[in-house]
Design goal:
Strand content: under 5%
């Protein structure tokens, strides 16, 4: 048997082409990309946008209690520039000027008497400021003004200036910001103590029907303090029946604070009524309680009279 030639052998499998390793070509140098504003750190964004500097923190304002207010070394010189400083556009400067005003009111009050109307207007303007520190400082200034000029304020200031001051104090005492609210309540209490009760009560009377419940309640508290200072003659000058009607209306108020103030007013009215000799002479045979019930019945609607009379009998 003849041997096959090697040339006729089965063909060998074709050799697969070798893979050539791909060498990554280095990318061209990237152009530095300006980061988006959202990717920047907060400090970078501020500097990039050239934002204005942040305002000073309000807590840096120092609140000085009245007992720690010291006299001025030269009140005459300070008085010459005080109104200009109070009208400054820089709120920090106004705070400092208000503290100087407090020093004048407590220790050099005679200098302020001619300009009390201007002072009231400046204080009201500061109270309307959205800056809580300025608002609180102005309320503290009003407290010291009431302390020194309560007996003069209603007669020496324009009626509108005092009305605006009273309104702002009632509004600030009714808000939720506690440290402003508490300061306004102190100012209203000082006002009720220092101001003549009859003219102040006439100012407060209009707030019995105020739409804001809190304002109405704060006014009721101030009215109760006024009535507690009034003797029977002053009550008669205001109108004893009108005073009782006002208290009876507040007795049905929605807020407990107003109702409690109304009870205080009724107790004050009854105390003066029961000790008045002229009223006793009108009905010698009846007791003080019966006279009171008769007075309530003649001044109020039956249901209101019963409610008022019951308060005193408790």
């Amino acid at each position: 048997m003849a041997l096959r030639s090697l040339d006729n052998a089965l063909p060998t499998s074709m050799e697969r082409p070798r893979k050539v390793a791909k060498v990554a070509t280095p990318p061209p140098p990237a152009v530095a990309k300006k980061p988006a504003p959202a990717e920047l750190a907060p400090d970078s964004r501020v500097s990039e946008e050239k934002a204005p500097p942040l305002p000073a923190v309000e807590q840096s304002v120092e609140y000085v209690v009245s007992e720690e207010i010291t006299p001025l070394s030269d009140p005459h010189t300070k008085m010459a520039v005080l109104l200009d400083e109070l009208n400054s556009k820089d709120w920090m400067s106004v705070c400092q000027a208000l503290n100087d005003l407090r020093r004048m009111a407590l220790h050099h009050s005679s200098y302020l008497v001619p300009i009390l109307g201007n002072v009231a207007e400046v204080i009201v303007k500061a109270m309307k400021s959205p800056r809580s520190a300025l608002c609180k400082t102005s309320i503290m200034a009003s407290t010291d003004i009431f302390h020194s000029f309560g007996h003069l304020l209603l007669s020496t200031t324009e009626e509108n200036a005092f009305d605006q001051l009273l309104l702002q104090l009632l509004l600030k005492a009714s808000q939720d910001k506690r440290f402003v609210c508490e300061e306004a309540e102190k100012a209203l209490e000082k006002m009720a103590i220092s101001t003549s009760p009859l003219p102040l009560l006439k100012k407060l009377q209009s707030y019995v029907h105020h739409a804001n419940l809190r304002v109405r309640a704060k006014a009721a508290v101030a009215m109760s303090k006024c009535v507690s200072k009034m003797g029977i003659e002053v009550m008669k000058e205001f109108g004893l029946a009108a005073l009782l009607q006002m208290a009876a209306e507040l007795l049905n108020d929605r807020l407990p604070e107003a109702r409690e103030a109304a009870r205080g007013m009724i107790y004050s009215i009854y105390g003066e009524f029961s000790n008045d000799s002229d009223l006793k002479k009108d009905d010698d045979e009846s007791s003080a309680a019966e006279s009171w019930q008769n007075f309530c019945s003649s001044s109020l609607a039956p249901i209101a009279a019963q409610s008022v009379a019951k308060i005193v009998s408790l």
